[in-house]
Write a structure and sequence with these properties.
Length: about 190
Amino acid sequence: MGQSQSNDDDEVELAQIQELYTAFMQECPSGALHLHEFRKIFGISTTSEEESLYVERIFKTFDKNRDNVIDFMEFVAAVHLVLRGKLEDKLKWSFKVYDRDDNGKLDRHEVKHIIKIIYKLKQTQDSDMTPNEVCDRIFELVDSNKDGQISLAEFMEGAQRDEWIMQQLKLDVNCSGWFKQHWRRKTS
């Protein structure tokens, strides 16, 4: 029984791919999503250099073949991750965004950099803590071997063990509102 449920879910997703393709091609007639279009989808209108680099980093994590555009298949994978992805997959993706030098470890500079940008993008201080204090607390709670770096395993374990850590580490990408609005308009 569980398997037929899974097949039904797959069929629903497959039935929606044509609609998604139509919406994608209306937004990106070239068949390629460029960085400026990506910014629009994710509601990023800032021109700050740090924030621009952050958005570019997110874009690059979705650009699997590294051709500087997101094709339809990469778009489907990104939409699935953001809207329907499992927590574990979202955390792995968040780790990739934090890991600016792609060495598989997060240092304090990388974590602090992303936290500062997130504070700017949200334009609210949900906490009485500064980005430096947030970074210090994350390392205190997550860097279990105290080597000054956070591995993917430490990142995953720390986020799943502590709700505050989860909220700090999991990137909340705000495209669902845009996607739902455009999806309904272009596929109705």
